Amino acid sequence: MSRALVTLRQVSKRFGDTEVLKGLDLEISEGETFVLLGGSGSGKTVLMKHLEGLLQPDAGSVIIDGHDLRRPEELEVVRREIGVQFQSGALFDSLTVAQNVAFPLRELQHLAPEEIDARVEAMLDLVGLRAAANVLPGELSGGMRKRVAFARAMVLHPKLLLADEPTAGLDPITTETVDDALVAAHRQLRATAFIITHDLPTAFRIADRVGLLFEGKIIEAGPPEQFRASAHPAVRAFLKDWLAREASARED
Ligand SMILES: Nc1ncnc2c1ncn2[C@@H]1O[C@H](COP(=O)(O)OP(=O)(O)O)[C@@H](O)[C@H]1O
Ligand SMILES: [Mg+2]
């Protein structure tokens, strides 16, 4: 087993009376794609915000690449090693695709314009969008927009990619093309990835390990085949619910 890039130990977080994380443990190995499943409101986004350092645990520790995020100076270092793809995609609609992808480079680094152009072009190649470089996001399909958001998250070559529902709102075929772009790109860049999704086919397609967040803990985590075969009642219930929702969506 390779070294852990992410280690959460006994992380607890509450908002008022709502205890969201209850002594959660998680390790993600370097280079691994970990996909997090969980019901709506189970705390997936809250957990991801702890990895970004946007939330601090009430108790427990979050260590990324050897840095303890409770220390502000270490948090600064780690922030530069993380790429985030937000739930909404959140592109700048008045900037072209290339300008959107270039944005983190301009914000964080003092690079020559030619260097920025070269890195943007390389990222757009990786997600199959080089031809759309000078187009505004509003002219793109939903799947293309997600791939732009992903390119922007990866342009600084982060060690850790965090993505919150990167395929939300896409149809199954488009989801598959986005998944494939994400997997190809992040394997090539050798990033470790923590990806939240509602979508089981996505989870099983892209994950090295799938985990389920339930009642404040990751109650099961393993390779897709193992996860699917889990006898844990919460996993069985989650898989059953998902199949039922899919069946009723097909009837509509
Ligand atoms: N900043 C906040 N203040 C108060 N409650 C919050 C805050 N962020 C999240 N919560 C609550 O934490 C729970 C988990 O939310 P979230 O992580 O967004 O769920 P999801 O699994 O759908 O991403 C919800 O009950 C939500 O209302
Ligand atoms: Mg969420």
Properties at a glance:
alpha/beta; Rossmann fold; 9 helices; 41% helix; binds adenosine-5'-diphosphate; binds magnesium ion
Task: Report a brief summary of the structure.
By secondary structure, the protein is α/β, with parallel strands linked by helices. It has helices at 44-52, 72-79, 97-108, 113-126, 142-154, 172-188, 200-206, 224-228, 233-251, and strands at residues 4-15, 18-29, 33-38, 59-64, 67-68, 82-85, 160-164, 192-196, 209-214, 217-222.
Can you give a write-up of this model?
- This protein has helices at 44-52, 72-79, 97-108, 113-126, 142-154, 172-188, 200-206, 224-228, 233-251; strands spanning 4-15, 18-29, 33-38, 59-64, 67-68, 82-85, 160-164, 192-196, 209-214, 217-222.
- With 252 residues, it is an alpha/beta fold.
- It has a domain at 4-92 and 160-182 and 190-251: Rossmann fold, CATH 3.40.50.300.
- Strands 6-7-8-3-9-10 form a six-stranded mixed β-sheet, sandwiched between helices. A four-stranded antiparallel β-sheet has the order 2-1-4-5, with helices on one face.
- Strand 4 and strand 5 (67-68) form a beta hairpin.
- The radius of gyration is 18 Å and the shape is globular.
- The N and C termini lie far apart (45 Å).
- Residues 44-45, 164 line the site of magnesium ion.
- Magnesium ion is lined by residues 44-45, 164.
